[in-house]
Structures are given as C-alpha cells and as structure tokens.
C-alpha cells in the first residue's frame, strides 16, 4: 500500500490525461523500473453518458413543455379555429349552392283566359332544375319552408285575375286592376311544402286578359329552411 502511494507521487509529473492514455497509467516501482497500471473506465463512461443524456432529455422536455404551454398552444388553437371556420364556410356555401331556387320572367306579352296556367318561360335561375318553364310548375324536391313570389303586370287597360295553387289547393288570390297605363300586383307567400308538392299560378275567370311580358312579370321561389 505504501509503495503504491509512492508510485502515485512520482506520477504527478507525468501527463495522465484519460483521453490520451486510453485507460493505462505509467508508474515507476521502488527500484526505478517502469510499471504500467491498467484500470477499466468503461463503467465510468457509461454512467457519465447516462447522466448527460438524462440531463439533456430533461432540459429538452422542459423547453418543449414551456413552448407547448405558451406560444405553441395558442398557435395550435388559432390554426384549429381557422380550419374549422374555413370548413363551416365551405359547408355553408355548398348548402346555399344546393338550395332549390328559381326565377323566371314572362318573355313576351301573353293572353290568358279560363284556367290557363301562367308559363314564365324566360328562366334566369333554376338551381336543381325544379321549375319547368314548359308547364309553369315548380315541384318541391324536399320537405321544407319555401318562399314563393310573383309580380303580375297588366298590359295596357287590362285587368288580370289569377290565383296561386299548391297542388290542387287554391292557396291565394291575386288581382291586378286596370288603369289607363300598365298596373302591377306583387305577392309573396311562405309555404310548407312536402317533397313532390307542386306550386303554380293559374288564370281565373272567363275574361280574356293580357299579362305584360318583356321582363315585367315574373315568378320565383326558393327554399328557406
């Protein structure tokens, strides 16, 4: 034991860097004969590596948690909100585009009498193709509440008598009185319709009457909800 301590004293003047000696320390015995003392540092290096890794992982986790709890969380929430709003807008626009809607003018001055159905034959909008200009009938493609409207302009000094039908039911009466010049009558209806229900405007009475066309008189409708 004493001789080993003396050996270590002699070694103090020698460069004993572990990185350079690779686990071997030169020494001199009591008679001045060079000796080599071998030792194993693998366990030390392993423990050191474990400690360093644990410290790095802990530091990374702390920084990541802080980032997530502050700016990252805010960023994620904002991104989710923006994405949800965009999807809602897209769904809403798609819903609007798919809503049954039509608008049709009477193309030219037209004479009606008896039970003639008014055929508004200049169609400008017909989403879903549920209005038929050849028959003048709108057919509801789905159940819901609909708004239907019409403007009826009497040509010259004519009267115009009409009513609006829902299937075979006379839902509303309409009348445009005669004046020295053209006169008009406007009606708006809110209807609960089932799928397949038919809505149209029909002349009433035995008089022969002329309705002003050229984009003066029209029939329109759309699904509200």
Description of the molecule:
The chain is an alpha+beta fold and 225 residues long. 31% of the residues lie in helices and 36% in strands. It contains 3 helices and 14 strands. It has helices at residues 2-11, 18-21, 42-97, and strands at 24-28, 34-38, 101-105, 110-112, 122-127, 131-132, 137-139, 144-154, 160-166, 169-176, 183-193, 198-203, 209-211, 218-223. The protein has a 5-stranded antiparallel beta sheet with strand order 5-3-14-8-11, with no helix packed on it. Strands 6-7-12-9-10 form a 5-stranded antiparallel beta sheet, with no helix packed on it. The protein is rod-shaped, with a radius of gyration of 47 Å.
Give the H and E element order: HHEEHEEEEEEEEEEEE
What percentage of the residues does DSSP assign to strands (E)? 35-45%
Mean pLDDT: 81
Largest sheet: 5 strands, antiparallel
Instruction: Output the strand order for the largest sheet.
Output: 5-3-14-8-11
In total, how many beta strands? Answer: 14
User: Helix count, per DSSP?
Assistant: 3
Give the % helix: 25-40%
CA-to-CA gap between the ends?
Answer: 99 Å
Rg: 47 Å
Query: Given the C-alpha coordinates, what overall shape results?
Result: rod-shaped
User: What is the oligomer described by this structure?
Assistant: single chain
List segments where confidence is low: pLDDT < 50 over at least 5 consecutive residues: 1-22
Give me the secondary-structure category.
alpha+beta
